[in-house]
Design a protein that fits this description.
Son of Sevenless (SoS) protein, Chain S, domain 2, mainly alpha, Ras_GEF_dom_sf
């Protein structure tokens, strides 16, 4: 349908600003045949407006729950800036900002990415407008202390404060400088690029979600991915160690375990793991190479987290994850197998695979049960026990790991299949 065409009936109620046609059209086509879980997710994320709710008999979506009780006020004053170090003030403001950000549910960012209004986000942004105005007006009356504002902005950058707070302080500083030197134009990089400041504060979450909603996939799969990403969002941004980079919407493991033959997936994963092991395992164990250790640990952790997300999100792949664990055991890939078992365990759910292979990640007596089990032939090892022993100066297990890997071949390693 052409973007300017006049859609009919309920399709008309489905088209919104930003024209996210892929998901809109898929949803229009599929909603009559959706399973109950997909309908639940559709309602949970509120990806419809009131007209569509009436047409399909859905409950109108309420967007006010997340912002209930959100205060515009901030605990900051000029006297604090004069009495305390800028890094201490930055830390206090960042903590307050984190609390305010926590009032925005993930569903609100999804709706905003879809082009629907989000009062919860608007309420939150007004709080940042308030601190910007407060700091601007205070320093305008105290220009002799402008250096303190410069230091505050730098301190927020150094502690990787969230972009909402950082943008507010940055804009306040720009406005104060303009007030001090009215002949100097206020340059807003985002306006020069055709993007209003609102986008600067939202794009790190909104744009990745927009790309997901525009992917040529079924509405059911997109809704399942959103379910996974909701768990990731809260884990990333609702912790004391929040990382405020762009939101990673990659759910490739979910797609692979869902659509690829499980045996083929286990073999492909093992071949890829073997490439990494060939390149990094010796340096990681014997050369004390931090980069090599980080690469192998990151790959293992990423798989573990992907499994945990899928399990917690309950996207109907737990049976296939169990099957994948058995196939990895069959091809003696203990490296990825233990990552999967750790992911299942972290989800708090008990599956058949956890019952069968949970002992492999039992750390008692330096993973004695694991070492006793794998000491039977070629294999690609769980990296951590050998590394732990090597760090303590015991390289016996490391030597065994290298020897077994040298004799390992994915296609020839299968047993019990």
């Amino acid at each position: 349908m052409h973007a300017n065409a006049e859609p009919a009936n309920c399709e008309k109620s489905m088209l919104f600003p930003w024209q996210l046609v892929s998901f809109t059209l898929l949803l229009t086509l599929e909603v009559g045949n959706m399973d109950q879980e997909s309908i639940r997710r559709l309602c949970h994320f509120g990806l419809y407006n009131e007209d569509y709710a009436k047409a399909k008999g859905l409950e109108p979506f309420s967007s006010h729950e997340g912002s209930a009780g959100l205060s515009l006020c901030w605990d900051w004053s000029m006297s604090q800036s004069l009495a305390e170090r800028s890094d201490a003030i930055a830390a206090k403001l960042a903590e307050q900002s984190s609390h305010k950000f926590s009032h925005i549910p993930f569903t609100e960012f999804v709706r905003r990415a879809y082009g629907l209004p989000s009062p919860a986000i608007e309420d939150s942004l007004r709080a940042y407008d308030f601190i910007e105005s407060k700091i601007y007006s205070t320093f305008t009356r105290n220009l002799q202390h402008l250096g303190l504002l410069v230091e505050l902005k730098q301190s927020l950058k150094e502690i990787d404060a969230d972009p909402f707070l950082y943008a507010a302080i940055k804009k306040a500083l720009q406005r104060v400088v303009l007030q001090r030197k009215p002949h100097v134009p206020l340059v807003d990089e985002n306006l020069e690029n055709g993007k209003p400041e609102l986008d600067e504060r939202l794009q790190w979450i909104i744009e990745p979600l927009q790309r997901l909603l525009q992917t040529p996939d079924t509405a059911r799969n997109i809704l399942s991915q959103l379910e996974i990403l909701e768990k990731r969002f809260y884990k990333l941004y609702r912790s004391s160690e929040a990382s405020w980079g762009p939101f990673n919407t990659d759910t490739s493991f979910f797609g692979q375990v869902q659509w690829i033959d499980v045996s083929e997936f286990a073999n492909a994963l093992s071949r890829k793991d073997k490439v990494f092991f060939s390149q990094y395992i010796e340096d990681a164990l014997f050369a004390k190479d931090d980069h090599a250790r980080r690469v192998l640990n990151t790959r293992w952790n990423d798989l573990s987290v992907a499994v945990e997300e899928c399990m917690v999100a309950d996207v109907d792949v737990s049976g296939k994850i169990d099957h994948l664990a058995k196939e990895l055991y069959c091809v003696r890939n203990y490296y990825s197998l233990t990552a999967i078992i750790q992911g299942i365990k972290a989800s708090g759910l008990h599956t058949e695979a956890l019952g069968d292979f949970g002992y492999l990640i039992d750390s008692e007596n330096n993973y004695e049960r694991y070492r006793r089990r794998v000491n039977t032939g070629p294999g690609m090892e769980f990296f951590y026990p050998a590394l732990s022993a090597a760090v303590r100066g015991n390289f016996t297990f490391a030597d065994e790991v290298i020897d077994r890997f040298a004799r390992y071949n994915v296609e020839d390693s299968c047993f019990g299949r």
